Amino acid sequence: MTVFPYLNIYVAYQISILSISEGKNLANIKQQKKRNLQNERNRERNSRVKSSIRTANKKVLKALESKEKDSSTILEYFKNFVKTIDTAARKGIVKKETAARKKSRLAKKVNAAVSVTKSA
Prior knowledge:
The protein is mainly α. The protein has helices at 7-21, 30-65, 71-90, 96-119. Helix 2 runs antiparallel to helix 3.
């Protein structure tokens, strides 16, 4: 009754690809199943930490761009950013060089803003 008999094979092929891409039924070996679970857990943890780094960075930048530049607030947000990114670098979530570069670039902006608020 079907005009295209090969269509059922194509649909089955798509379903099998979807199940592989989702990571289901991929590993047969016990250790590899465990490794897959660890990788998934670490991936989720890393994404949470990287998100908190971006959030801390944005808080500092918003404090710098605000009309009322309070140096104590800026410095507090910057210290929180440094703490967050240093912890991530120590645990290997972010490379040490990347952490140093991001801290340096943000520190330049913070120092410029704090020196302007002190002189004004």
